[in-house]
Design a protein that fits this description.
The complex is a heterodimer of chains A (267) and B (277). By secondary structure, chain A is an all-alpha fold. Chain A contains 13 helices and no strands. Chain A starts with a helix and ends with a helix. The model of chain A has no long low-confidence stretch (mean pLDDT 93). With 277 residues, chain B is mainly alpha-helical. The N terminus and C terminus of chain B are likely disordered. The chains are: A mainly alpha (267), B mainly alpha (277). At the A-B interface, helix 1, helix 3, helix 4, helix 5 and helix 7 of A face helix 1, helix 2, helix 4, helix 5 and helix 6 of B.
């Protein structure tokens, strides 16, 4: 507005160069490397048995983590935004805790709890139950890491919307569930959609925490990100990037949904 | 009677929603998290000190805090600039750029890691030109800063953007009509308004960078004492089944990062209040 034209364009150029170096070039390299040996090689890399097993395990972990965290997110947002109670700020801080814990430490928690030397280790061994270095550990670590995402998306939305409509419904004789389904759910619909999509993307893409609790057994306890790591460390770069391109597409779809939700909210 | 008190009387589900929230929080987050401190409590202070004061651990702490600080600082400068450009100027592709800023939130860290390592290696698209200038990024500490800058990129942009949007143009116009030049307006009017938000973004980016693992390990050389970050050191201890060592390092790291973050948050809150009041 007030800046001379050249200052404006100079600032835009600096900002875009920064984004180019840190975002656009890495994004382009993923797809360039994924297809450097052609579409057939890309298809082969993502459809070989180990990759398919990784896709299955990734979907499986997300199928547990996302619904549980959605229920938690809705319950937490309802409690926090509809009522006043002591310790509310503390509760919100506790919900956010997993964000400030390193993914490696998040994974470590479950090793300390369920590992052979862990607190519950001897009992689990006596009953022949394997949690860590197996699929249940991967699911638990994924749930932990993605726990705050839906709640975090819903709390500001519901706070901004207020509760007048819900109060009206209740006063007119609707039951609690009716009010939630017919009044609240439609109001938070788009925020919830974005929360679910983001939670899903993070659940499928989690690396550090899952890496700690996974046994790294190919075809058995490797999720997609772990499969990418294995391939990359074996110098199978195009295969690693082929699998990585799937996860990148998931991230881009997530951003597209976010853009769509924001666009709807603006209208 | 306040609105809140009345709300509590009318809307149902307080017990159910709070009860479930607390149950889930305890089971999924608090019980697992308590294990770090339970395990630490079972170690003797001498054991913990020996582990934490080992040269390799200290070097990892230094690198983790130093590189995270550098990355958060870079992100603060460029984040404010990006927020400014996206909010104040119109240029082709602005909406697309605005959307893509959030990519580091959604992209799996392992993917970011291998992409950055490839771009910034000696043969990479960007790395080869930096190499000509004698700058080695991949497999050095600079690589760690590059990866941490990537993961922290959205925070400052997203905290500063709403503040810029809400700033009344009248304030700037008033300053201009009173004879203030552009630099004075920037320094005296805009900067004080943006500073708290930028500081919050800085703290968030810093916290995110501290714990980051996936995007760093591919681009860092991972050499002990040189380019080994703390989360990787914890990972290595775990792989060697040295749970006591891993826990001691993790506990100190957690406490240090929690208290640092708390300090920064308190500082930024105080600034907030000052400028609001």
């Amino acid at each position: 507005m007030n800046e001379p034209r050249w200052v404006r364009w100079l600032l835009i150029a600096i900002a875009m160069t920064f984004l180019l170096l840190f975002l656009f070039v890495p994004l382009a390299v993923v797809f360039s490397k994924a297809f450097e040996k052609g579409a057939a090689a890309w298809l082969a890399a993502i459809s070989e048995p180990d990759a398919r097993a990784a896709v299955r395990l990734t979907l499986y972990a997300a199928a547990f983590a996302v619904p549980l965290n959605v229920v938690f997110g809705i319950a937490a947002a309802w409690a926090v935004t509809k009522f006043q109670f002591r310790g509310k700020n503390l509760l919100v801080t506790l919900i956010d805790l997993p964000f400030s814990v390193s993914p490696v430490i998040s994974g470590m928690l479950f090793v300390l709890l369920f590992g052979a030397q862990g607190f519950l280790g001897p009992w689990l061994q006596a009953h022949d139950i394997k949690i860590v270095f197996a699929v249940p550990g991967i699911i638990l670590a994924t749930i932990f890491v993605t726990a705050p995402l839906v709640a975090r998306e819903l709390i500001p939305t519901m706070e901004a919307q207020g509760s007048e409509e819900e109060e009206a419904a209740i006063t007119l004789g609707a039951s609690g569930w009716q009010t939630f389904r017919r009044v609240s759910l439609p109001k938070i619909r788009w925020g919830l959609v974005y929360g679910i999509v983001l939670c899903n993307a993070r659940a499928m893409g989690e690396f550090g925490a899952v890496s700690v609790v996974s046994g790294h057994i190919r075809g058995q306890t490797t999720t997609l990100p772990l499969h990418v790591e294995i391939l990359y460390n074996e110098y199978q770069f195009s295969a690693a990037f082929a699998v990585a391109s799937l996860l990148t597409l998931l991230a881009l779809v997530t951003l597209a949904v976010q853009g769509w939700v924001e666009w709807r909210a603006e209208r | 009677m306040t609105t809140e008190a009345r709300t509590r009387g009318v809307l149902p589900g307080f017990g159910l929603s709070l009860g479930f929230t607390l149950f889930y929080l305890g089971l999924v987050i608090l019980i697992p998290l308590s294990t770090v401190f339970l395990k630490t409590a079972s170690l003797s202070p001498a054991e913990i000190w020996a582990k934490v004061s080992a040269p390799r651990t200290l070097a990892a702490f230094r690198l983790s805090f130093g590189a995270s600080l550098a990355a958060a600082a870079i992100n603060t400068v460029f984040g404010v600039l990006l927020a400014w450009v996206l909010e104040r100027y119109r240029f082709p592709g602005r909406r697309l750029v605005d959307g893509i800023v959030d990519l580091p939130f959604a992209l799996p860290t392992a993917v970011a890691g291998i992409a950055l390592a490839t771009v910034y290696s000696g043969k990479g698209w960007v790395g080869r030109y930096l190499e000509l200038a004698g700058i080695h990024v991949a497999y050095t500490r600079i690589g760690v800063v590059v990866a941490l800058t990537f993961v922290g990129l959205p925070f400052v942009v997203r905290t500063v953007q709403p503040v810029l949007r809400q700033l009344e143009p009248e304030t700037e116009e008033a300053a201009a009509s009173l004879g203030a030049g552009r630099p004075t307006i920037l320094g005296r009017v805009l900067l004080p308004e943006l500073l708290p938000a930028a500081l919050t973004g800085f703290a968030l980016a810093f916290a995110r960078a501290l714990g980051e693992y996936g995007s760093v390990i591919f681009i860092a050389g991972n050499l002990p004492l040189k380019s080994e970050i703390t989360p990787l050191l914890i990972m290595i201890q775990l792989e060697q089944f040295d749970y006591a060592g891993a826990t001691a390092i993790a506990a100190v790291f957690l406490v240090a990062s929690f208290s640092l973050l708390l300090t920064i948050n308190l500082l930024s809150r105080r600034r907030h209040r000052r400028y609001r009041g």
